[in-house]
Design brief:
910 residues; alpha+beta; Uridine Diphospho-n-acetylenolpyruvylglucosamine Reductase, domain 3; 33% helix; Uridine Diphospho-n-acetylenolpyruvylglucosamine Reductase, domain 2; flavoprotein; Alpha-Beta Plaits; 30 helices; FAD-bd_PCMH; FAD-linked_OxidoTrans_Type4
Length: 910
Amino acid sequence: MLQLEKAYLEMILNKLRTVVGEKDVLYKQVDLATYRDSVHLSGLQPTAVVFPKDTGEVSEVLKILHQYQVPVIARGAGTNLCGDTLSLDLCIILELAKMDRILEVNIIDRYVEVEPGVTNMEVQNILKPHGYFFAPDPASMGVSTIGGNIGENAGGMRCVKYGVTTDNVIGLEIVLSDGQVILSNGPLDGDFGYNLTGLMNGSEGTLGVITKAWLRIVKLPDEVKTLVAVYANLEDAAKTVSQIIGKGIIPGALEMIDHLAIEALEENMNLGYPIEAEAVLLIEIDGFSGTLESQVERVLSICKENNATEIRVAKTEEERQQLWLGRREALNCFVSKMPTYAQEDVAVPRTKLPEVLEIIKKIGEKYSLVIASVCHAGDGNLHPTIIYDDKDEEQTKQAHFAFGEMMEQAIALGGTITGEHGVGIEKLKGMNLLFSEDELSFMWQLKLAFDPKKILNPGKVIPDTISRMMLEDLEQVPESKEVSTTRELFFADLEREEIGEILINEKILAAYSLEGNKSWCAIRPKTVTEVAAIVRLATKYDIKILPWGRGTKVSIGTHSKPFDIVVDMSGLNKIIEIDTENLTATVEAGIEFKDFQEELYKKGYMLSIDPLESGSPTIGGIVATNSTGTLRLKYSSLKNIVLGLDAVISGGKIIHYGGKMIKNVAGYDLRKLFVGSWGTLGIITKITLKLSPLPEKAVYRTFMTDDYSAFADYLFAVQKKDVQLTSFDIFVENSKYYINLCMSGQHRSVDRQLEILDEIEINKLALIDEVQDPYFIAGKSFFNKYIQPNQSNKIVIKSSIRFSDITAWIKKIQSINQGEGSYVFGNAASGILYATFFGENISLTDLISDVKACSKNALTFGVHTLEIGPEMSSISKEEKSSVSIYLHLKEMLDPKAIFSPGRTIGGRSI
């Protein structure tokens, strides 16, 4: 940004003062000095610092800065290690420290609502008396803010079991660069449209300003066992990590400290760590009281098999905290050795830990540097720490070379340049190592959809080599050409490309027709190269594409514009790799779910989803529609199960994001964008997925009552017990109410869950079925048993509501007098419900009007979409504030609108 003239600057500052008040605009040099530093990095001094106190003030401030194109950086506590809140030019700091209210603690709905300036520790402290916690626990949790945690997608030591920040944020209130306020999900698990909440996690304040967050909360475990295993060499310790995870044991934490860190700890704190050890593993197992012994025994056995020289189990809480103190304070002890230490942050697949630790050791020898390592070993996230004298120019230069080489080596091992610290300014050069120009350009276009004037935290995340480029003009034929000519040219080019199977038979094409639209042809590519060629030619000739898996969900939502060709992905159907030690698998998008799952079952593993659609969907189709099913309560949704994917985007470019790493915060999270994008942004070709071990035991219990009060009482009683169910489903038709519960895991753990549920006594409620099923087939069977597939004139409305609103919402749905009958089914714990109306005498317009009226009168939060119904395209929709950003994303990322034209993302919003 050019130097602001004094009078011009004063005019802008005066406008800001009218919004936030005189005292909340800092501009004196002495006040601004604090904001030029961020831990070990420094930037320029900002022009001013503004302290908004609520969403309205943030919106008004951004409107002013947007009008005058003044760059702005949102800031929390400034604890980031990558420099993402530092000024690189003249700018305004939007300091969110005064937005520090905890707005709601809602235990029954499992969330806490906070403003961005609340610290992580404040959230933990307010939840602890209720017996709950917020899972992310970064080392800075005492001072770092929730807004900052989300901006960085912060991790911590509990991530191996409970996930990183993005796995634990339900929804957000966001202010865009022009001051527009949008709500993404709020406290609701399901929403229509692109996953804005997922995109904001790890975006480092470059896409929008977070003003509220709804955080998922987790029940504190009844019992915790903590043990330390000591090793004479790093390789044995690293192998132990891979084997613990590979055996299906998911610890609450699994950390590693190397010899240099142990040495520094003992010199400073004398905690009793064996100073001769090359590595120490800190392992924590948690769960229900009295259920942990078998897991602890298995872990002890694995440690011994891998040559642990000593194993110590904490016998008291004081002992446990003493062990954890060593892990938390390890880095701070390095200052006794040298004036400065700098911490790297890379992540690799867990099975690559032995290799990467050996490589880091050799890098230290190569550059004559002392490098200690502490690791979140359970998720492959390493923090190699260089201990050096920053006043020694040669040592400082060698340290920078070493960091660069660590990033290169992590990438070579299938890892990433940052697992949890972010890109900021520190790792911008690494982005060019990790991503292709096409991938970075795609991210830059995504950024411009949110922030077209580029005022939000400029110079971060995307390297200058990309952000200064003009957007490429797409190849296209002259617009004057007739459709028939365009078609001939397209087919001629297809023949030259020698693309596999092109179907033009009318009878065959009838299977691909949709809402009266028929394609010219269906193409079945066999390779990603063929998919790319098809999309490149479609972009060139403005041919509209409908991606197709098995067609199991294409009827959901609307296709308001015609498509020209179908790209049938069933030819790309290979399992590329099943890596059970790393708990990951990579497949082509066209493989059918049932075929893939059967292969996993043979090895004792599974993909932890159970999509409810009929037929045999493909993995690509399931991912594109985020069709997770009922197991999300324990295993999360596909948004978090998908670790990496490849897609062919406009112009026929192939992009890749993620891989076999559990943690990855490099660039914008394109996985979150493509999961649930319904084929509107590109064609998914390859997916890497997180696997789960088959449980030792899984039990389904089905209850039935014809008494509404008994149904409601049992629902709430189960939710209050919070026994960490695997699924919690309901089906309601007429006056019959069904509840289907699933418990899964270790034998003793499942038995304990059943014991707790047996404590609930509800009259007029009958247990009608109980089945053991470690393959989770009974979950889908529950719905198949009661849902009639072929009702006439069927209309399906999907609702996402809070758990506490479910029973009242069902009553409202039952009161709607439309058609010959209706039923409600869905996942109670996530609040995702489907209401189906059927019969010949339904007015779609009246039905939608009734649903809107019910929602307005009964729900504080609720999102409703029409998924199936006659003449859906003709129904006017009530647009949410987020719709415009969805349109901008589509326009920027698919500028010729060739993918799934006129496709609603999921159902039609009502």
